[in-house]
Amino acid sequence: MLRFIGKRILWMIPLLFGVTLMVFLILHLTPGDPAALILGDAADQQTIEMLRHEMGLDRPLPVQYLDFVWKAVRGDLGTSIHSKRPVVSELRSRLPATLELACTALTLAVMIGITVGIVSAVKRYSAFDHAMMLTTLVFASMPSFWLGLILMLVFSVQLGWLPAVGRGGFVHLILPAVTLAATPAALIARLTRSSMLDVVEEDYIRTAHAKGLSEEVVIWRHALKNAMIPIITVIGIQFGGMMGGSVVIESVFAWPGVGKLMVDSILTKNYPVVQGGLLMMAVIVSLINLAVDVTYGLLDPRIRYE
């Protein structure tokens, strides 16, 4: 197991290298000059060039990229162009809000998705099953930003039950968390149903029934454990997607997380923050995938790592 984890961590190095290179090229090859944006339209060309030199933007792109990578290896992601604060400090101050939103949404998605999927599998082809599969299809196909705007319009503007924007108490978390959890919950529910239907046809499930075990014991103790392998994969993918997908939700609900910071930084071409934020997200997603692979072995001892 430790050897497998070591190999996966080593494989993260070229992945992160590719992410940083792609992001660097996209940011620096898009139209627009950060120095000109900072100084405004009234600045003359000489002042803009002086600021470009101060920011290091007049150096060749390979030199800028290698400088970024070398500093990132040492834990220095640069300085924000606008706030003049270290990028690490900017991200550290925003990350708790993003993790709070993503973890709450993931908890909702897993609880709702697995429960609905199991009940639909047990009551397969019933009216409940058909209704749930139709509902999950709708939510799986619905754009999250559109759902967020609808929930905001109904529960904040018209009914006044929940705050529309910002981060404060638990009530501020409800709308963005439900919005972010809707699509993953639908996907988890559909996969859980499909996986459970495959498992309940296995011989060992029939044997468990023949031994007189109750339906609850057979489903929750025997069937679900073996059906969880593909479900865990999707949960891991969805959690990584939530960390990245929170960009849209945080913008809709003005949630002060990393996603909102990234959007603001992209619009103002704040290169260091965008590069540092995407690098951090890539590391988090890679660690999530590693955790999913390790969980396989805990759920099914038959899985061996080479």
Word description of this protein:
α5 packs across α8 (170-199) and α7 packs across α8 (170-199). With 306 residues, the protein is mainly α. The protein starts with a helix and ends in a 7-residue tail after the last helix. 78% of the residues lie in helices and 0% in strands. The protein has helices spanning 2-29, 34-39, 45-55, 61-73, 87-122, 127-141, 144-158, 170-199, 203-210, 215-252, 258-267, 271-299. The chain contains twelve helices and no strands. The protein folds into two domains: 2-73, no CATH class; 93-299, MetI-like fold, CATH 1.10.3720. The model has no long low-confidence stretch (mean pLDDT 81).
Give a quick precis of the structure.
The chain has 306 residues and is an all-alpha fold. It has two domains: 2-73, no CATH class; 93-299, Orthogonal Bundle (MetI-like fold).
